[in-house]
Specification:
The chain is of the alpha+beta class. The protein has a single domain, classed as Sandwich (Jelly Rolls), CATH 2.60.120.580. It is 16% helix and 34% strand. The strands form four sheets. It has a nine-stranded mixed sheet. Strands 2, 4, 6, 12, 14 and 16 form a six-stranded mixed sheet that branches. Strands 8-9-10-11 form a four-stranded antiparallel sheet, with no helix packed on it. It starts with a helix and ends in a 10-residue tail after the last strand.
């Protein structure tokens, strides 16, 4: 990531650090069309985010898209772990057979989606309306040289985990059931054009592989836009995950998400932010965990100053007494930290 991080100072100068709550301007008045984007060899970006990528779909601001995503694993690996061949999705087989434009990362992402009217300096609001399972299984696995403890586990393992959608649990093992908590590990827009094609592995200012389990249905994700059309991609579906994602995978699966996309002219951000029904979230990413945490905390302070009209001193204090700083993930080259502050602490006079 050193190559793309070179451009951070220029972006710091061009993007504001806060976001406003003004009404949308007339030119971004939302559309109401609904679309469906299925995963196929023609509609996936394998392992990259890129400002020059060809859009898989074009929509207008305000449109809703049902997006189908694929599990990031080869059919051979799934079958080798015990998955019957007839349960491997035909679309996954087609992607592995036909897609040759790959890398440098390994995630199979659906998109990109071009949003008309989205321009550099705007913010893409992604309303995550719903997320549902596409298949009744997930996997977890690790491999040599990966994960948070690579020297402790210098070999490969892969485990198929049945998913019970009716009971909303994952059957990890005999006597161990995990509540389902589906979310997309990777949601992002194209990086700045000067960065070229970047790997799908490290998260950055474009979002991408954030692996933030708080980004569930009902959440609004706010992504800084760096290129015309935004070029949104999504994938890396998870049925659930622990903070840290320490062995490098979660409960990896295929998901179907329904999103509403709005190009916001009234917002200007440096890093991705999010808003759940109960919390405001800021994020930071860096190869150094302390640096990632500092960015996430600074973003929360900036949010409290710009949105809640606190002084910087008061915002720093409130972050210390009321916000939770959590490690999002430790294994994606650039580590992730997110800060969550509950909406319930703000009186109606001071809430959005």
């Amino acid at each position: 990531m050193k190559r793309v991080m070179f451009w951070l100072p220029a972006i710091l100068l061009s993007f504001g650090l806060g976001m406003t709550s003004q009404a949308q301007t007339p030119e971004t008045a939302p559309s109401t069309e609904r679309h469906v984007l299925k995963a196929s060899p023609q509609t996936v970006a394998w392992g990259y985010y890129d400002a020059s990528a060809k859009p898989a779909m074009r929509i207008r601001s305000g449109d809703t898209v049902e997006v189908h995503t694929l599990i990031t694993s080869s059919p051979e690996r799934l079958e080798g772990a015990g998955m019957p061949p007839d349960q491997v999705e035909p679309a996954l087989r087609a992607v592995f057979k036909e897609v040759t434009n790959k890398g440098p990362g390994g995630h199979i992402l659906t998109g990109p989606i071009y949003i008309e009217g989205a321009e550099p300096g705007d913010v893409l609001e992604v309303d995550i309306l719903s997320i549902r399972l596409a298949i009744p299984y997930a996997y977890n696995g690790f491999r040599p040289g990966s994960g948070f403890l690579p020297n402790d586990f210098p070999y490969s393992r892969m485990k198929i985990i049945p998913l019970d959608e009716r009971r909303q649990v994952a059957k990890f093992d005999s006597g161990i059931e995990i509540p389902l908590h589906p979310f997309f590990g990777s949601m992002g827009v194209a990086p700045p054009e000067a960065s070229g094609r970047i790997s799908s592995v490290p998260p950055w200012i474009h979002g991408g592989n954030m692996d933030n389990k708080e980004l569930v249905a009902g959440t609004k994700l706010f992504l800084p836009i760096h290129t015309r059309g935004a070029l949104f991609e999504v994938g890396d579906g998870h049925a659930g995950q622990g903070n840290g994602e320490v062995d490098i995978t979660a409960m990896e699966t295929s998901l179907v998400g329904t999103f509403r996309f709005i190009a916001r002219k009234d917002m200007h951000l440096l890093w991705p932010r999010a808003e759940t029904p109960t919390h405001f979230i800021t994020m930071g990413f860096n190869e150094d965990l302390n640096e990632a945490a500092q960015w996430a905390v600074r973003e929360m302070i900036d949010f409290l100053v710009s949105e809640k009209h606190l002084s910087r001193d008061a915002a720093y204090m409130l972050t210390s007494v009321a916000a939770d700083v959590s490690v999002t993930q430790l294994v994606d080259s650039s580590k992730g930290v997110h800060v969550m502050i509950p909406k319930s602490i703000f009186t109606s006079a001071n809430s959005r």
